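Appendix B, record 7
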Amino acid sequence: MSKLSLILSCTALLSFGACSSDDSGDDGDDTGDGVAMEVDCSTAASAPVIANAGMTYSPASTTIAANGVVKFTLGATHDVASSTTGLSVPLGGTKCLKFATAGTYTFHCTPHSFTGTIIVQ
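Structure tokens (predicted):
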């Protein structure tokens, strides 16, 4: 497929999120904005863990290197959401996310509004 055909196909399918020209073999699920990509937790055994401790994330702030992974392990009534980055983990979910780009990413628990931060260096 030519690059022009691929661009036109991507444009047509963009609203369905069905377009990809990535031949890297990475089967991760992007959060939709390029901030974080879901990876298999079995390959991220040494990743720092963010859990909820009552009505807070523990730890509330985590610092990792670019291309580092953070594992979220949440209780049934807590999630991870961000209105600016698309970062998300469902209620009671466990998800490992790889962060490629340096920056500070904040997130919150939708039902309870407590917050957390991931700093990528």
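Remarks on this record: Residues 1-32 have pLDDT under 50 and may be disordered. The chain has one domain: 30-120.
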